Structure formats: structure tokens, C-alpha cells
Amino acid sequence: MWQAIRENPRAVTYAVLMHVGLLLLLVISLDWTPKAIKPGTHKPIQAELVDSSKLQAVEEKKQAEQQRLAEEQRQREQEQQRKAEQAAQQKAEAERKLKAEQAAKQKAEAEQVAKQKAEAERKRKAETEAKQKAAAEAKRKAEAEAKQKAAAEAKRRAEQAAKEKAAKEKAAKEKAAAEAARQREAEQALQAQLAEEQAQARAESALSGYIPQIQQKIQRNWLRPGGSAGGLSCLIRVKLIPGGEVVDARVVRSSGDPLFDRSVETAVLKASPLPLPPDAAMFKYFREIDFNFNPDN
Amino acid sequence: MTRPVKLLLLISVLFTAPVDAALTIEITQGMEGAIPIAVVPFGWRGKAPAAPENIAAIISADLSRSGRFESLPDRDLVSHPTSAEQVKFQNWRMLSVDNLVIGQLEESGDGRYTVQFELFDVFRGTRLTGSSFSAATRDLRTVAHHISDLIYEALTGERGAFNTQIAYVTSSGTGKNKTYTLLVADSDGYSPQTILTSKQPLMSPAWSSDARQIAYVSFENKTAEIYIQEVTTGSRRKLASFKGINGAPSWSPDGRQLALTLSRDGNSEIYVMNIADGDLRRITNSPSIDTEPVWTPDGKNIVFTSDRGGSAQIYRVSARGGQAQRLTFEGKYNAGADISPDGRKLAMVHGNGGGYRIAVLDLKSGSLRELTDGRLDESPSFSPNGSMIIYATDAGNREVLSAVSVDGRFRQRLSLQAGNVREPVWSPFSK
Amino acid sequence: MKHKLGSFIVLALVALITACSSTGGNKDGDASIEDRGTEASASGAVASGATSGTDYSSAALNDPNSPLSRRVIYFEYDSAEITDDGQQLLAEHAGYLVANPGTHITLEGHTDERGSREYNIALGDRRALSVERILELNGVSAEQITIVSYGEEKPAAEGHSDAAWRLNRRVELVY
Predict the structure, then answer these.
(1) Cα separations (Å) of B300 from A30, B253, B282, B344, C163?
(2) Where in chain C are the domains?
(3) Which helix (H) or strand (E) element contains residue C2?
(4) Who among A117, A286, A292 is closest to B27 (CB)?
(5) Deepest of A60, B389, B408, B422, by most Cβ within 10 A of its Cβ?
(6) What average pLDDT score do residues A234-261 get?
């Protein structure tokens, strides 16, 4: 699955964008407040001049009428309440259903997002660590390549199996699916991290053999200007092509002394071609090199 | 998972920082040494079969003598381009020269010539500078030295001092037949001109700061006297002829005063004389030897030799006189100091039991460093750009002049005429 | 008649001189320079009792057997101190100069080649001043003395050896 992602960057981008769009829609659509219940309206009583017995009869009639009305009213209110409750229940049910769907969708997205993040993280870590470490160790190039291939294959298979498992479990109970997905995420992160560290160690040991050689060739070709002040340092960015030939050299942080800068540029040009590992797969680490000329430290 | 957390994850994926592709490698040392340069013999266009001067050879020797450059020998040149389009940088890169100089010399009639040069950066494949000059035959060496100055400046950032002069004294013969001569020559020793000849000793030449006059000590009247003489016209006048010593003249930077040594008041002391009216002011007052005054470039102080501490050492005093401050603390003997044009260093004769050598004292740090390893080295004099020191040394049974770079890395004998050559002084930049 | 007067004067002078020299009872090198000095100043212009037998006539200056034929005082490295031997010799010359107050002497100071030239001019000057002081202590008037220093410019011996250097660290007494 990781390879699929790597090999289809555009597809991944569209998927992510689509999920973002959907999410935004969801956020907007789900955001409504429940409707308020309106109270019923009373009919106005018309007043007439009448005698006391009639008045009483009228009173009794009125009372009975009132009771009846009150009863009707109560019944109506009960009915309305029931309806409201029903509606609320329905709404809650619908909400729950939507929430579940949304949750399921988000879970799937999150899985993918997490996977992608882990991948990006791994990539970045591998490249920054390869850049910064330079230990001294023996070269095991052929072994490293074969191991790398086997590890990549194993990783691919493991990820394939994990994918299928995740799809099956999504169909089952939603709560259990969420739990299982979360657990798998953690496991995969761990596995990815381990594989990452192993790949790094292999890259480092291969690099460490070549960095001193490059340093020595540059140093041999660098004529430090005699009259310069001490404490100068200059950073120059060099672009190489396979074979080690320098095709571009540019000062990115000047020492402030144009003579010192110029001597640094000359050193790098004179040292071309730089001694690189013959393994083409290692070239990516040397495509662009920053040389920090810092002689007084 | 709650909604906010999912949102956060999404956002974090979208805003992940772009991956930095560069690997950083530290370079903590380099090589120290001369810049390799190739100076190709200039093309010649004229009626005569050969050019009147070998401009490239003069430039090549100048650059090598400075110690900052190493000229590729002629036999190692792979090709002889004389114009930019003939240059194939790939060839020069294989020879590992950093820079290339080419040029042409052409007769333009009436005893005049056109000299043209170009300087290239071999590895970058770019032209750094170039120029064209017109000159008479007698000025061709001057033009060559000027080109050396331009190249030196373009590649080191410092002003070149090749188009300058030196003055020095020679003695030849022995006993009653001894002859002393004061001469001025180019900084490479060529084209010497006699300023004065005498049967009696000549000593202590000193240039004025406009490089137009020289002060010196002459014993022509059987005693030491100080004269100042104009270099171009030869006209001179006697400035000091007091009882006893009249010695070690040194011009103030503004050219109005002369510091000198007199013993008219009993023993050698330092005085300052106003050149215009001869007004004299005494600067030191001690029963010890006080001599060899030299002005600091700001004209405020005078550095001199004194043995008031028991042995010859270098001291500094205000030009108005007062308390003197000792400057040298290493070695049994320090004398004959010259001060660098930036006022930061002193070159001197330094004796430590093994012999007398030229040493440089850093006035700020107080550290002293020996630059030469002779037994009888003396009379150090800084070049006007402060990068070299010329001095007198003995080679077997002859006194000769030698030049050493201020960092001590490069030393070269100056080939001059026969006889004993001593007391070299490097002229300032002519204004 | 003239001859007789002239020869009488000469005889008288000779008698005077020999008398003077024979009255001196001191042996060579007995008295210290201070004693001599005191003696000389106490007795005034006429030097007495300096050394036995030294002739201070003007002819003595050209006499190769006279101590006055030695005209060089030597010095140690970077020093202007005069050795005992030097002081004795200077006493002789002082004797002559005092005896011949019209005579002028130039003291030429020199050094060996080591070190810087103007410092050596000052060092040569200091050596000549040392010699002058001794002469003055011995009664010589300052007007009779001129000093000049040549530093290392006029070596007596060419060469870069200790032997040559020793010969160059000197003051020459030039009449």
C-alpha cells in the first residue's frame, strides 16, 4: 500500500482533497440547532348582559366548556408533545445514523492521513538523519541492498494484509472497528519506525565511508588566502551529477571576504570530480552538498 | 476519535515542511602556500626579431618574489596564447594553475610601444581584469611592474608594491681604495642610479614620505654629517653637522621634521629638527645610548633603540618627549627597528646568542617571531604595502640584499651588482 | 755667539727634561691610575712621576720603541670599559699630551660588524668618550681632544671571525 501511495502521488492528492471537501460539507450541514415548540393560541370570550340563573347556567356551561377546552387543550398538548418527542427521536436517530456514517468516513480518512503522515515522517527522518550522521563503519553495500529489498517486500506484504483486515472489520460493529483501527495504527507506526531506523543505519554506514574521502580531496585543493583575517567561514552549495562532477557551485553564506569566498569556489571546482560511491542508489544523498568551510573551529 | 483531532491530523499533513535535500560536509583545513599562476610570454609585434623587454619574465619574477605566488616555469607551459580567444581553460586546469596571465607587446613607432595584458581565473573560466598601456622603451620595466601591481591587487586584495624603488649603499675595494656609493634602484634591483659617491663612509639612507628626497649620513668631511638630497635633481643641502654624532635621520610622515641622533650634549640622544628653520628639540635624556629613531605612521610617537635597561632594546616615546616605554623583552639584543606602514609591527635586528636575525614584533600581542636564520642579518625595511621586508645579509664573503615575506614563508636574494650591498630602504608609494 | 746661546738653551732643556724624568721614582705599573691622577692634578701642568724613562718629546711620537707607538685601545664585546693595560697606555699618551699642550689628538671609536650600524656608531662614540675621560683624568685638556665614531664602517680587519672582531672593537688615537 505504501508503494501504491508513492507511485500515485496525484491520486493520493485528489483523494485527500476530496476528503477535505467532504469533511467541510459535513461540518457545515451537521451544524443546525433544534427548532423551538410554539405555544397554542386562545380564542377571545365574547361578553353579553344576562340574568343570574341564566348566568349560572351560562357559568356552568362556561365551566363545562372550559373543562372541555382544557381537556382538548391538554390532549392537543399531549399530542404535540408526543409528536415533538417522536420528531426529536427521529432527529436523534437520523443524527446518530449520520454521525456513525461520518465517524466511519472520518476513521477511514484518518487512517489514510495517519498512514501518509507516517510515510512523510519516515521520509523526512531518513533523509535528515542520513544528512547529519557520519560515523565510521565498514561497508556492506550488497548486503544492504538485498536486505533493503527484502525489508521493503515484507513491509509491502504486511501493509497489504493490514489493508484487507481493516476493510473486513469496517463492515462489523462500528465501535469495535474504530478500536481495532486505532490499535492497528499504533502497530504500523511502530513497524514503520523500526524499518525506518534500519534503513537509516544502512545508509549511514554506506555514507560514512565516502564523506572523509570527499573532505580530503576538497582540503587538498583548497589554498587558504594568506592575508585573510581569522575566524572566517563560508557555506557553498554544490550540485553534482552522477560520477561526482561539479556542475554548479554557489556561495550561499559569504565569509564577508571576497578573497576567501573565491578561494572556496576555486577549491570546489578544482576538486571536481568528487569521489562518490559507485552505487547509483546512493547518488541521491550526494546530488546536492553544502560545504561549510570553517578552518578556525 | 474526536472531530478536532482528525482536523488537526489533516491540517498537519497539508502543512508538512518541504524536505531539505542538501548533505552538509565540514571543511576545517586547507593548504597554505603560494597561488599557482602561469604568466605566458607576451606576444611580440615589431620590426626587431625580439622584444626590447621580456615583460612576462618581469611580472613572473615580481609575483614570485612576493611569496604569495608560484609562477609556472616557462618549460611547463603547454601553449602560448596571446589573446583571449586562444585560451583553452581545460589545458590550464590540467596544469593546476589557478590563474593565467597573457599579453602582447607591440611597437607603435617613434620608440613607443603598446603593452596589453589580461588576467584569467582558470577554474571558473572567466577574465578577471586587463588593460593596455603606451610607453617609451625606458619605461617598459615600469609598465611591467605596474601590471604586476594590478595582478597582485586583483588576486590578493592588497596593493602591490612592485612599482616602487629601493635605496641602498655599496662599498667596494679595501683600505685606502674603498669607495662608498648611495644608489636608487627598482624594487627588483634593476636600473640602479647613483645618487652619491664618496671615499668616506655613507650611511643610514632614509626616504621622505613623498619618495622625492633621501636623507643620509656622510663622512666626506671626516666626521658624520646629515644631508638631504632630491632624488631626481641631485640637489642637496647639509642639515646637521653638530659636534660629535650626527646620525640616523628619519623623516616625519608630514615631511616637515627630521628625527636624528646627536651627541652634542655629551652622549648619543634623540632630537627632532624642524627642516625649514633648523629648530632643534631634544627628545631623550639619559646617560645611555639612545639612537635609531623611527616615526610611527601617525606622526605621534618615535620608536628608538636604547640600552638604558642594560642591553640594546627597542623603546617608544612621544614625539614631544617624555617617558619612554620599552617594547622588546625577548632576546639579548634588539636594535635597528623599522615600523610597518600600518603601524602594527616592528621589524628589527634581533640577537639571541645564535646570531643576528631579522625578527618581527607584533605590537598588539607582543609576540616576536624570527623571519631569517642568518648570522649577520641587519637593516630591515618594510615594503610600502607591508607585505615584505628587505634586509642586508652576508653570503660567504659578500654582503647582499635579500627580501622575505612578512609571514616568513618566502625568501629570495636580490641580484644586484658586485661589491658589498647594505642598508636597503624601501621607498614609500610615490604620490 | 748665536750658536753658543742656542746650544746652551738646548742643553738646559735636556737637563731639565732628564732631571724631571730621573726624579720619578715610580716603577712601571706600581701606582694605580687614581694615584697618578691625584699626583698629576696636585702637581699642576707638569706631569711628574708617571712612568720611568718615558720620553714625551715630540720625537718620541715617531719612536717605534716608545709606548706611544701603540695607538689602539681594545674593548670587549658591547662594552666601553678600558682594561688595565689600556689605562696604562692611555696614561702614557696623556703624559705626552700634557707635555705637549699644543698637540691635538683625535679619538676614533670603532666596533665590530655585529648588530645595527647606527647603534654601533653610538657604541664607538661611547668608547671614544671613555678614552677621553681617562685622558682628562690624567690632566689632558678637553681642547686637545676631538672625538669621531665610525661604528663598524672602518674595520681594521676584514672577516667574520672572532679574531677579526676583536681587532675591530677599538679606539684609535690619531695625532
Answers:
(1) 88, 10, 15, 14, 44
(2) 2-174
(3) helix C2-23
(4) A292
(5) B389
(6) 93
The residue to which cell 628589527 is assigned: B348
Task: Say which of B201, B204, B376 has its CB closest to residue C160.
Answer: B376
Q: Which of C129, C154, C160 sits opposite B267 (nearest CB)?
A: C129
C-alpha cell at B394: 652576508
Whether A112 contacts chain B with CB within 8 A: no
Average pLDDT, chain B: 92
Share of chain B above pLDDT 90, in %: 80
Domains detected in chain A: 2-27+58-126+138-207 (no CATH), 221-293 (3.30.1150.10)
Best A31, A238, A293 residue to mutate vs chain B (most B CBs within 10 Å):
A293
Query: Is B333 at the interface with chain C, CB within 8 A?
Result: yes
**For B35-156, CATH number?**
3.40.50.10070
Instruction: Mutation target for A interface from B26, B68, B129, B345: give the one with most A CBs within 10 A.
Output: B26
DSSP-derived secondary structure letter, B357: E
Can you give the residue ranges of every domain in chain B?
Answer: 35-156, 165-426
Chain A residues touching B121 at Cβ < 8 A: 262, 266
pLDDT at A36 over 70: no
Superfamily per CATH, domain C2-174:
OmpA-like domain (3.30.1330.60)
Query: What is the Cβ-side half-sphere exposure of residue A217, based on CA atoms within 13 angstroms?
Result: 15
Label residue B139 exposed, middle or buried (CB < 10 Å: 0-12, 13-18, 19+).
middle
Asked if C154 lies within 8 A of B263 by C-beta distance, the reply is no
Q: Do B1 and A215 touch (CB under 8 A)?
A: no
CATH topology assigned to domain B165-426: Neuraminidase (2.120.10)
